[in-house]
């Protein structure tokens, strides 16, 4: 886990990229029904704006309240693994909530069916949480933490 604000920022940049890329691929796949090169192209083209939105949401809206809530849930003697899992869950759930709205707005901007916003947003939340939470806990989290610490050993990014 990051140990200061600079490490936290670098870690957030890395984690957001992995999560947004994967969830973009997943969501485009869900809307097309097949995994093709066009799905890759569409997800890649939409990545910069989705990534920027996720990064801003993570850094300015979700992170502080999610971590505060997570640490209220944890006893002082909680193991590092339990802390990582709790913080990850508390981060993923609000990010899914907000980014599912982003996805709904993106889809509806093409169809102009704005009366369907709440339905699309709600179904996006359900579809995304079942992918984002396990992906974060089992794949993205461990991968990004390992790569982060390999690139930036403890103490190399100073506060």
Share in β-strands? under 5%
User: Counting H and I runs of at least 4 residues, what is the number of helices?
Assistant: 4
Detail the poorly predicted runs. Answer: none
Mean pLDDT comes to: 92
- Give the overall silhouette: globular
Which percent range fits the helix content? over 70%
Structural class: mainly alpha
Order of helices and strands: HHHH
Largest sheet: none
User: How would you name the oligomeric state of the polypeptide chains in this document?
Assistant: single chain
**Alpha-carbon distance between the two ends:** 14 Å
Q: Let me know the number of strands.
A: 0
Whole-number count of domains: 1
Describe the structure.
The chain has 159 residues and is an all-alpha fold. The protein is built from four helices and no strands. It has one domain. Helices cover 83% and strands 0% of the residues. The chain is globular and about 50 Å long. The mean pLDDT is 92.
